[in-house]
Fold each of these.
Amino acid sequence: MLKAILADITTLEVDAVVNAANSTLLGGGGVDGAIHRAAGPGLLEECRGLGGCRTGEARLTGGYALCANHVIHTVGPVWHGGRKNEPELLRLCYWNSLELAREHNLKSIAFPCISTGVYGYPAEAAAHIAVRTVLSFLDRNKFDIEVTFCVFSRPDLDIYKLELERKP
Ligand code: AR6
């Protein structure tokens, strides 16, 4: 099941929230900062042991003080105009996060709008990749998980609603 909601991702009761991190995995601004603040210092401690993460890859940690049991950290591409493999790298963020969720048998996951803040990825193009990638992963893997697209603005909610209505 796929849905879009307008909410602070740190408040969600799901098996995993996805963090739009940077390659150090040592925190930052935006949703990354919010997740680290809400989770508490244990999250940073665990992240230090991971040794970073390349763009498009994903890593799983505990959720610490979050309502979520886990955090899946993924590193989205910085938008450089679209000719630096950004769409494929963004697709990999969603795909690899879902691979981790499947490996750990998670039943629910919430994604923020990866790369569309500080990293500058255009919102509509990013939402298209997000929804299409999730649908194709679920179809390919015959995997049942509740997927929430947790947006942080009304315009993003409208974009996701349209994208979800377009399915299949
Ligand atoms: N809940 C849900 N969504 C949020 C929240 C929240 N609490 N806070 C922000 N957003 P960004 P990026 C939305 O900039 O573009 C960090 O410094 C926000 O409105 O957080 O992937 C990292 O360390 C936007 O729609 O992530 C990296 O250095 C979306 O989350 C860099 O930013 C993503 O915005 C990653 O940049």
Amino acid sequence: MLTLDFHPTGHHFLQIPGPSPVPDRILRAISLPTIDHRGPEFGALGLKVTDGIKRIFKTQHPVMIYPSSGTGAWEAALVNLLSPGDHVLMYETGQFAALWAKLAKRLGLSTETLEWRGGDSDLPEAPGWRHGVQADLIRERLEQDKEHRIKAVCVVHNETSTGVTSNIPAVRKAIDAAKHPALMIVDSISGLASADYRHDEWGADVTVSGSQKGLMLPPGLSFNALSPRAIEASKSAKLPKSYWAWDEIIEMNKTGYFPYTPNTNLLYGLHEAIEMLESEGLDQVFARHKRWSAGVRKGVEAWGLPVQCADQDLHSPILTGVVVPKGVDADALRKTILQRFDLSLGAALGKIKGRTFRIGHLGYSNDLTLLATMAGCEMGLKLAGVNLAGGGVEASMEYFSTHPSQSGPAKAA
Ligand code: PLP
């Protein structure tokens, strides 16, 4: 048993943008007895989850379920599709896009990174980390690549380090408009099951995701959703792969099994998560996150602090990045908020360390947990001596009370 030197009362407020708070229903499902992963019960579970997860990705094609964190699924996508030295076009929207590029280099791929062009006085350390992918830059670069040296374009759907989403259909259109054969690989690790995502319709070749965000599970499962083109490309890809290789998994998944010991108890949780998401309805789930995001944003705006996302249409439904005034250390602020109010907020990562904090509005949350979160932030900001323009909690309360939710108790009544 882990010994803590303090025991706070009540629930901890886990408002980081993943891992997200796990519903009790899922925790109970995970606590069922572990079963034989070669036995008949497991086969039934395997078939249910491999089929159900396709509906969440909105695909008819196979989805790989790995017992790994999202980083493993990033690697899986690249090693299955590409060969040593292949050139890959990445787009840096934030720290996760940058880390994916670093991983690609370590695998022996040649990478090239595009970034938003422009300045920013609120966040001069990383102006591009306030914007989504500009698809026209991708089109321009692909049109120059007459010899088709670029084998894949990698983009992040919901950049968890910034709170900015990207328009994935626009990236597909850019690749098609350039008449370029590059594969499109999308990271929707934090977007899936919280923001609208359509693997087949949007023409993704591989979509990478993870369990600990919109699926409301603990960390430990990750995914590669495939397209027929991706499966074809994997047959001639030469990067070394064994554990991550799609071919054996696709074959064994047909009967509900895996070529290795799968994460049985998390798969119980996945089964429960799919049931919960589908019984609410995916469209309702997406609307719920958008509404939370709008309510939190109202509060941040009332404080007079810049929301990190600078593109009005691209605010993340999953998290809100808040830029703190120069001279305020956002990490020290988060530390105070954790110590005083038992509330965890997301840190600013990479080149913006200490310049922002991130409020997660995903997983097992509701209006009141978000209002408590806003209260914790507001108290912390005041303790840090930040001059706030107005009451953020009040503004969020006003938004939530005047914009009724389409799901939850009001709908059920
Ligand atoms: N990509 C995005 C967008 C993420 O948010 C994360 C983690 O937060 C990752 C990749 C890496 O996933 P993991 O930490 O599960 O390995």
